[in-house]
Amino acid sequence: MNKNVRQITDGAMMCAIVGVLLLVDRQFGGILADYLLFLFPLPMVFFSTKYGWKPSWMVLTAMILLSLIVSTPQTIFYVASESFLGLVYGAGVHDNWDQHRLVVLSMIIGAVVNIVSTVLLASLFGYNLSAEVSEYTDILNQAMSQTGTTLAAGIDISSFITNIIVISAILSGVLEGLVTHLIARLMFKRLHMHVEPAAPIQNYFPAKWLGYVGIAGLVAYYYSIYRPLSNSIAQNVMQCLGIAGFFYLVVMGVIGFMVTGIVMHPKSRKWIGIVAFLVMLLAALPTAIFGFLYVTTDMHQKMLEGDPNAAKNG
C-alpha cells in the first residue's frame, strides 16, 4: 500500500512539475519550448527510472491531458513527444539497458521529433518552410551579388537551403537527445540513484562499415553538385545523405583527435576537446577525412595499445 501511495505521489509531483513548466512557457511566449526543450523529458525520466514501463504510461497520459488544458497545440506535441523520450530513456535505465543504446535511442527520438515539427507539422505550428527558404535564398543571392562571388553551376540554391534546414533539424534533435542524456545522468547522481558508469570516449568505436557509408555519402554529395540528377527528389535525397555523411565523419574525426590527444597528453584532457572543436571549425573537410581513416583503419586499436589507462577504463 505504501509503495502504491508513493508511486501515485511521485506521478502527481512529476505532472505538477510539467504543469509549472507549461505555465512558465506560456507566460514567456514559448521560450522554454524554443530554447529549453531538453527540460521536458526530465520529469518522465525520473518517474520511469523508478517504476518502469507500465506505471509510466499512465503518468505520460496525464501529462498530455494536462498540456491540453494549459498549452498551445505546438506545446502539446512537444510535451507528448519529449515526455515519451523521457519514458523510453528512464524505463531503459530501469531495465538496465546499455548506455550506448540509451544514447542512440534518445538521439533518434529527438531527431524524429524535430523533423516532424519542422517539416510535417510546420503549417500547424505557424512555420512556413517555403517562405523561409525563399527568404534565405534572397539573402544569399544579395550577399553574392555584393561580394561578386558565385556558386557552382550545378547547385540549386533553394534545394540546397532546404536540405540544410532539414539536416539542421536532425542535428538539433540529436543534440537535444544527447543533452537530455547528460542532464539525466547528473540528476541521477544528485538524487543518489544507481546509474551505469560512463565509458571513457577512447573506448567508443563504431562499426567500420559506417565509415564507408559516410564517405560514400560525401562522394555522392559532390557528384550531385557537379553532375546534377534530372530527378529533383533523388537529387535532394542524395544531397541530404551526403551532408549527413559529412557531419558523421566530422564528428568521428573530432572523436579521433580527442582520443589521440588523450593518449599522447593524458594530463591535458580538459583542453583536448576545445582544441578538437577548433580544428573542426577551421578544417572541416580534413577532419572528415581523418574521421574516415579513424573509423575504417586500425588507428583506434593502435592508439589504445599505446594508452596505459585503456585497460583500466574499459
Structural commentary:
By secondary structure, this protein is mostly helical. It has helices at 2-27, 31-35, 42-51, 53-70, 73-94, 99-120, 129-147, 157-190, 208-226, 232-264, 269-282, 284-296, 299-305, 310-313. The model is unreliable at 308-314 (pLDDT under 50). The chain is 78% helix and 0% strand. It has two domains: 1-198, Orthogonal Bundle (Arp2/3 complex 21 kDa subunit ARPC3); 200-314, no CATH class. α3 runs antiparallel to α4 and α9 (208-226) crosses α10.
Topology:
Layout: H1 2-27, H2 31-35, H3 42-51, H4 53-70, H5 73-94, H6 99-120, H7 129-147, H8 157-190, H9 208-226, H10 232-264, H11 269-282, H12 284-296, H13 299-305, H14 310-313
Helix pairs in contact: 1-3, 1-4, 3-4, 3-5, 4-5, 5-6, 6-8, 7-8, 8-10, 9-10, 9-12, 10-11, 10-12, 11-12
Nutshell version of this structure?
This protein has 314 residues and is mainly alpha-helical.
Look at the structure and give the mean pLDDT.
81
The biggest beta sheet is recorded as: none
Helix content: over 70%
The Rg value, from CA coordinates, equals 22 Å
Structure class? mainly alpha
Using the coordinates above, name the CATH class of the largest domain.
Mainly Alpha
Helical run tally: 14
C-alpha geometry: globular
Poorly predicted runs: 308-314
Kindly report the oligomeric state of this protein.
single chain
* CATH fold assignment of the largest domain: Arp2/3 complex 21 kDa subunit ARPC3
CATH architectural label of the largest domain: Orthogonal Bundle
